[in-house]
Amino acid sequence: MSKLKAVESRILQCIQNRFSARYVSLPDQNKIWTLTVSPELQDKTPLVMIHGFGGGVGLWVQNIDALSSRRALHVFDLLGFGRSSRPTFPSDPEGAEEQFISSIEQWREEMGIKDMILLGHSLGGFLAAAYSIKYPRRVKHLVLADPWGFPLLPTDPSEVRSPPAWVKAVAVVLGRSNPLAVVRAAGPWGPRLVQRFRPDLKQKFEEFFEDDTIMEYIYHCNAQTPSGESAFKTMMEKFGWAKRPMMSRIHLIPKDVPITFIYGAETWIDRSIGEKAKQQRSDSYVHTLAIKGASHHVYADQPRIFNAVVEEICDAVD
Questions:
Q1: What is the crossing angle of helices 190-197 and 165-174, to 10°?
Q2: CB 301 within 8 Å of CB 264
Q3: pTM to 2 decimals?
Q4: Cβ distance 79 to 103 under 8 Å?
Q5: Per-residue pLDDT tens for 72-109?
Q6: Which is nearest to 228 in space by CA: 95, 53, 111, 76?
Q7: Pairing state of beta strands 47-50 and 116-121?
């Protein structure tokens, strides 16, 4: 954890706006590592962002200053990831999902946030949608950035979009262990292995870091007890799908909660889900858009466009 703290501190030095970083203690004794930016801007609905699988607050570094210029911004490490507590999750998908959602709600209560604009990427998008089903009064706009776990697993193999090579490589490991077990097993060579699996990640952040800071951050986020990772494995079906697909439940989000899907135009995630959600929720606000030149990590592939899109959504709220 000390190495993660050190590398994260290098990332946080890039933030220009006023911020505080602290642990938020939950009633169940777990702790959520939280970054709050521009806390003085209290006249508008705060934006809360939830990272994806294997990530943490540091991966939002290209978005934080822009998205906190006119309102308070809160980002946190999901329970079981990053610097947050790593408890044992239930071994069933519904129970694992519930623990994630419960921790987010406990965190909100401890933070004193009345309501929020809630944005989630990938696994974070799945959890943001699940949270919105259970606590819709707390969500003024739901933003789903390349969300994981929405479509039903196709019965026809020809309908399955081929994922990138790194996803296939991870999938090979899944039958025997947790998704990132091979990274932990690599020990001090872990950052180099992350670089080999995902050379594109370093390129996404090269404007901020010319060295291996981001690769080291990702490695140390995932070199610890695989708590959230185990929960993710419990919830998933063949890596790309969820055992409890969100699309079969999205109708449970009340009609007065507006939803925006933001996809990377070159993503391996099924982009048709946004349009299907719009058809299913015809009497509700559902908007979907794709950002050119971006893949799954849309917030890092085209950060300026992503930030502008999210700012426009936030400005429409208040």
A1: 130
A2: yes
A3: 0.90
A4: yes
A5: 999 999 999 999 999 999 999 999 999 999 999 999 99
A6: 53
A7: parallel
